[in-house]
Amino acid sequence: MTGKAIRPTNSNSGVSAVASVTLKKLVEPLKVVNMDNKEYSLMMEIVLFNPESSCLRNREVVRAHRKRSHISLKEYTDKHSSGDLGGLGSSCVSSPRSSRSVQRSPSN
């Protein structure tokens, strides 16, 4: 995390608006977790590499990269966790599918 401010210009004002929303909704809440740079970069890879994006040519490549990042994050946090939060790896990234699958209960 560099902490550099993104200043809007006429040519990138749309990008700046997206960056601002991303910072407010994703990055700011993660500061509470006290992630180090490695955890942060792996988490951003998981968040930003969306295999469901409509502009992708090969979703399987992105899906595989995201899964590798997810596994790396879990392994890293399990190894480096101080235990005060139970490890980001064990609480937030318990399985690659947990972030996108919703279990449905059988209807009666």
TrEMBL record:
Residues 1-108 form the NR LBD domain. InterPro entries: NHR-like_dom_sf, Nucl_hrmn_rcpt_lig-bd. Residues 90-108 have a biased composition (Low complexity). This is Retinoic acid receptor RXR-gamma. Residues 66-108 are annotated as: Disordered. The keyword Cell inner membrane does not apply. Residues 72-82 have a biased composition (Basic and acidic residues). The keyword RNA-binding does not apply. The lineage of its organism: Eukaryota, Metazoa, Porifera, Demospongiae, Heteroscleromorpha. Coiled coil: none annotated. It comes from Geodia barretti (Barrett's horny sponge).
